[in-house]
Automatic annotation (TrEMBL):
Protein name: Syntaxin-binding protein 5-like
Repeat positions for WD: 201-242
CDD domains associated with the record: R-SNARE_STXBP5
Ranges annotated as biased composition (Low complexity): 518-527
Residue ranges of domain V-SNARE coiled-coil homology in the record: 1003-1058
Topological relation to the membrane, as annotated: Peripheral membrane protein
PROSITE patterns listed in its UniProt record: V_SNARE (PS50892), WD_REPEATS_2 (PS50082)
This protein's UniProt keywords: Cell membrane, Coiled coil, Cytoplasm, Exocytosis, Membrane, Protein transport, Repeat, Transport, WD repeat
GO molecular function: GTPase activator activity; myosin II binding; syntaxin binding
């Protein structure tokens, strides 16, 4: 809420949004900085899987069926992944190619899949079903084995009740021939794979949710639906060795604790140096109503309860070894939440979380505004990263992010990285009393929510408009400053459209000026008090929706507040929300508009230059002949002067003194009147998710609607304002909701010190062109058809010392603009491109004649349009409400592309869809997920090279040493020849009607990936040879050691007297 973030990628693209989170993510392989090898073996998901490796490595995969993913199993260090779906199908993904693809699929016909288990370094996958049976799949060929474990053979023969679905399968860490099977009803079976019978059966009267082994294979632990944990010795099936209720209240009389919520999952991890870890999700007491989801970590006598922001989907403990029969040595826990991915550091006190490098949950509020800018200045992203890395992030682990699978390559060209976060709510005071709260009730959502943004990459100036009718202007600085008092400019509309017996409007008293106050110290508080209080009859008047802080504000390096502008209530009527916004660093101006009119603010001199209604912009050339419904007692002249108030010259003077760019004197709040303010009729922002607030008709005839002509777009430029102009002059083009484009001339003073002393003269110049529908976008081309960006200046350090070199450079800087001499060489010709919801026109300047015209759509309307740079040249990109993405050539407006991409199903897409250069676009598919697309053939052809490597083989660690006596007398890990047991020779063929094998397209894609990545394959082959040679040498060394040990044992055995 009121937070702004920035992201970047390698192609110097930058995106700004309020808050962002990508849900349900997954890593390919996990290797900590201190761990040579860490597998991620299993994870439950409930959406198409995202795959994340090291920061910058990211991949998204979608199953064709669209069914929910219920479980994932990695083939550890093999570059493959098995996914189980809710439609009872399992799929084998090939991760050795840049674009993962499905190699094989297996669709079960008669049974529903409930659980899967793939042992480490095994090619046989155990699949448990809802009927209680277990089938075995060969993951290489994706065929079923004839070996099947039926539920009626697993349970007691005398039992007639069905045990329920299979909820857990795992092999004994010390004996691969023993398989433990957990049924939902509470029955656990230890199954002997060779003898095909149950060795032991363990029964508990509560349903089972998960099972976990101790690494020695002598004990296992179960989690139950009543919030208990039961620890069993495998050779004592009669009763549990121990029963624990982690969150239950222990009665004093020794009775059973009160039942708690189900423990959905438990993991049991051991360490060499200390007590084991028990990590579980759920199990809280039922009396903890409203408590957030928790993960519990039990280590020795300590129990830590870690609250999560979202419900827990699954978690996994990261350990030092992939072998289940060795001490696990856990060092982190990966927790998958519904809208986040959290990694907890187990090795540090307090269990802090790792700072997430992925653009996942940035904030708990949904994204409300999104801008995507490509080809940023080369020094911009390093500058944002520099200040963003210094932002205080308390409570995070000091270690590096442990997920480090994959290689970048050029993959960062399509990945997002968080650079910087800006909290706009810091400018305002938090409401503490109920009396202050009604002032923010313009909309039902958060009053600090960001609605619009305007950003200049060259100067790094940023302007943000919020839903509470406020505008904040930020300037970028690398130095920390403390602003004593923020300057606030309040703009107030004259209320003249309310029906009343007197037929007149309300006139606001004139604000005081510095000349009427005895001293700044006394006038500041008095002015602030008079302008923020309600009238005597309880009607809110001259009150802003938010209250700006009047205490010193410490501003860290990065974006710092330059100016705050607020619209105020008038006679009980709230201000209309801001509908358009633009900032220009070359002119030092900010302009914003709404349904009433527009205001131009000089943020360098801190003055209001123009404050007019839309009607007054037309002047005497208004084509609609509108009349207000109630006469006005007073009207503000077009020059901005109000009778009885301070003169325009006095009002334009800044009432503060400037000291190194910081406003340190009293806060003077000038009030300026606008002409027309109709009664409140616009839809609140939260209703825009379901309907549009502006008319879609191309010919609006209603007088009421014509009187409510809103400002929809702005564009600063240097152009020919009038037909008779022979030179370029600064101007502001204004687009309205009725399809009209108007021009405002800007007379700028000389640069340097004169710019801060002389006023900027602003004057409306009349109507230029009309189109069907609301104006959405304007741009300019030179005579050769090249794009002319708005003039801008380069960034400079605003807080440089007064006698420093930076300050001298600032005084000599010049705005970046197109010189008139260049235009004169091109016969003084320009082209203006104007796009509306229905049409696009190209206007020749200075003649102002339409040379090209194209009707974009007749049956729908355009939601977003931009003039973008692609490889072939400049074009117009449009996204329509019927889902079509279209591009038009410039300046000819010839159709180049028309694709039916995505029909409008959610207003969030309409609010966040944006185009950028290089043939890319972006929008939010949900409140937390960003979708990036490309409509460029060149990008599609190079996409394979842009992707990173997902699979990077690592050396498999050495298996735990069994020891000579354990190998001689038993007690060590027992191996199993699964091929002999499960293969067709030993188990026969499975029934063809049980499951259907479906070949996937991954074979062809894999060949393509191999052809494109032959260097990577050679590197992998070399690593494999090195590993093989190393393993052979290790085997030789072990053989020699065993022979020496055997000779020594034989010698000592002969020396023992009989």
């Amino acid at each position: 809420v009121g937070e702004l973030l920035s992201y970047c990628d390698l192609s110097l693209s930058l995106s700004l949004s309020l808050s962002l989170s990508l849900s349900l993510s997954l890593s390919l392989s996990l290797r900590g900085s201190h761990a040579p090898f860490t597998p991620w073996n299993s994870l439950f998901l409930y959406s198409p899987p995202h795959r994340f490796g090291r920061p910058g490595v990211e991949c998204y995969c979608q199953h064709e069926s669209g069914a929910a993913v219920i479980q994932l199993q990695f083939l550890i260090n093999e570059g493959a992944l098995v996914s189980a779906l809710a439609d009872d199908s399992i799929h084998l993904w090939n991760l050795r190619q840049k674009r993962p693809a499905v190699l094989h699929s297996l669709k079960f016909n008669r049974e529903r899949i409930t659980f899967c288990h793939l042992p480490f370094q095994s090619k046989w996958l155990y699949v448990g079903t809802e009927r209680g049976n277990i089938h075995i799949v060969n993951v290489e060929s994706f065929t079923l084995s004839g070996y099947t474990i039926m539920w009626n053979k697993a349970i007691e023969l005398s039992s007639k009740a069905h045990p329920g679905p299979v909820v857990h399968i795992s092999d004994n860490p010390m004996d691969e021939g023993k398989l433990i099977i957990g049924f939902e009803s509470g029955i656990v079976v230890l199954w002997d794979l060779k003898s095909k019978k149950a060795d032991y059966r363990y029964t508990y009267d509560e349903a089972i949710h998960s099972v976990a082994w101790h690494h020695e294979g002598k004990q296992f632990i179960c989690s139950h639906s009543d919030g208990t944990l039961t620890i069993w010795n495998i050779k004592s099936p009669a009763k549990p060795a121990q029963t624990i209720t982690p969150h239950g209240k222990q009665p004093k009389d020794g009775k059973k604790p009160e039942p708690c919520k189900p423990i959905l999952k438990v993991e049991y991890k051991t360490t060499r140096a200390g007590d084991p870890y028990m990590i579980l999700s759920g199990g809280l007491s039922y009396d903890t109503v409203g408590r957030r989801p928790c993960l519990t970590v039990m280590h020795g006598k300590s129990t830590a309860v870690l609250e999560m922001d979202y419900p827990i989907v699954d978690f996994l403990t990261l350990c030092e070894t992939p072998y289940p029969n060795d001490f696990q040595e856990p060092y982190a826990v990966v927790v998958l939440l519904e809208k986040d991915l959290v990694v907890i550091d187990l090795a540090q006190n307090g269990y802090p979380i790792f700072e997430n490098p992925y653009p996942l949950t940035i904030h708990e509020s949904p994204v409300t505004c999104c801008e995507y800018v490509a080809d940023c200045p080369v020094d911009l992203i390093p500058a944002l990263y520099s200040v963003g890395s210094r932002q205080k992030r308390q409570g995070y682990s000091k270690k590096e992010w442990p997920i480090s699978g994959g290689n970048w390559g050029q993959g960062t060209q399509i990945m997002l990285q968080v650079l910087y976060k800006l909290k706009t709510a810091k400018v305002f005071e938090k409401t503490r009393s109920k009396e202050e709260k009604p002032n923010t009730e313009i909309v039902d959502e958060d009053p600090f929510a960001i609605q619009l943004m305007s950003w200049c990459p060259d100067s790094r100036m940023l302007c943000v408009a919020g839903v509470s009718a406020h505008v904040i202007i930020y300037r970028f600085s690398k130095q920390e400053i403390t602003t004593e008092v923020l300057l606030e400019v309040r703009l107030q509309y004259e209320l003249n459209d309310l029906e009343s017996p007197e037929g007149g409007g309300y006139q606001t008293p004139a604000p005081p000026t510095p000349s009427t106050s005895p001293s700044p110290q006394t006038s500041g508080p008095q002015t602030h008090h008079s302008t923020s209080s309600n009238s005597s009859d309880g009607i809110r008047d001259n009150v802003p929706c938010l209250k700006v802080r009047n205490s010193p504000l410490k501003q860290s390096p990065g974006y710092q507040v330059e100016l705050v502008v607020q619209l105020v209530w008038v006679s009980g009527e709230p201000p209309q929300q801001i509908s358009s916004l633009a900032i220009n660093s070359s002119y030092g101006l900010v302009v914003f508009g709404n349904t009433n009119g527009l205001a131009v603010v000089d943020y360098l001199q801190k003055t209001v230059l123009l404050n007019l209604s839309t009607v007054e912009l037309y002047g005497s050339n208004d084509p609609y002949q509108r009349q207000p419904r109630s006469p006005r007692k007073s009207r503000q002249p077009s020059g901005g002067e109000t009778p009885g108030s301070a003169t325009s010259e006095d009002r334009c003077k800044s009432p503060t003194s400037v000291l190194n760019g910081c406003f340190t004197s009293f806060c003077f709040l000038p009030t300026v009147l606008l002409s027309v303010c109709p009664p409140r009729a616009a839809l609140p922002l939260d209703n825009r998710d379901n309907s549009f607030s502006r008319s879609r008709s191309s010919s609006v005839t209603s007088i009421d609607k014509e009187a409510r002509e809103a400002i929809t777009s702005f564009y600063f430029c240097e152009t020919y304002t009038r037909k008779t102009d022979s030179t370029l002059t600064p101007a502001l083009w204004v687009g309205t909701s009725l399809g009209t484009v108007l021009s405002i001339s800007l007379s700028m003073p000389p640069a340097g010190e004169q710019r801060l002393l002389q006023p900027v003269i602003v004057s409306p110049s009349g109507t230029l062109v009309r189109l069907k529908g609301s104006i959405l976008r304007m741009a300019f081309l030179d005579a050769t058809g090249s794009f002319l960006p708005p003039p801008s200046e380069l960034w400079y350090e605003p807080n440089a010392p007064a006698n420093g070199e930076e300050r001298e450079r600032v005084r000599k800087r010049r705005p970046v603009s197109v010189s008139p001499s260049t235009s004169q060489e091109l016969n003084e010709h320009q082209y203006a491109v104007v796009c509306s919801e229905k049409q696009a026109k190209v206007i020749a300047l200075p003649s102002q004649t339409c040379i090209f015209k194209h009707n974009i759509t007749e049956t729908s309307f355009v939601l977003r349009t931009d003039v973008v740079q692609t490889v072939p040249g400049i074009c117009v990109a449009c996204f329509c409400a019927n889902g079509h993405i279209m591009t038009l050539s410039l300046p000819g407006l010839r159709p180049l592309l028309d694709v039916n991409y995505l029909p409008l199903t959610d207003m969030r897409i309409a609010r966040t869809f944006c185009f950028t250069n290089l043939g890319q676009a972006m929008y939010l598919t949900s409140p937390t997920e960003i979708q990036r697309i490309t409509y460029s053939q060149d990008v599609c052809e190079n996409l394979q090279e842009m992707l990173g490597e997902l699979f990077t083989p690592v050396e498999t660690p050495e298996a735990p040493n069994r020891g000579f006596f354990k190998g001689l007398f038993g007690g060590g890990a027992q191996s199993l020849d699964r091929e002999e047991l499960f293969g067709e020779t030993g188990a026969g063929k499975a029934s063809r009607s049980l499951a259907q094998h479906i070949p996937g397209p991954g074979g062809i894609e894999g060949m393509k990936g191999a052809a494109s990545g032959i260097v990577g394959d050679l590197a992998r082959a070399r690593i494999a040879l090195d590993e093989r040679g190393q393993k052979l040498s290790e085997v030789e060394e072990r053989t020699a050691a065993m022979m020496a040990s055997a000779d020594s044992f034989s010698k000592h055995a002969h020396e023992v007297p009989s």
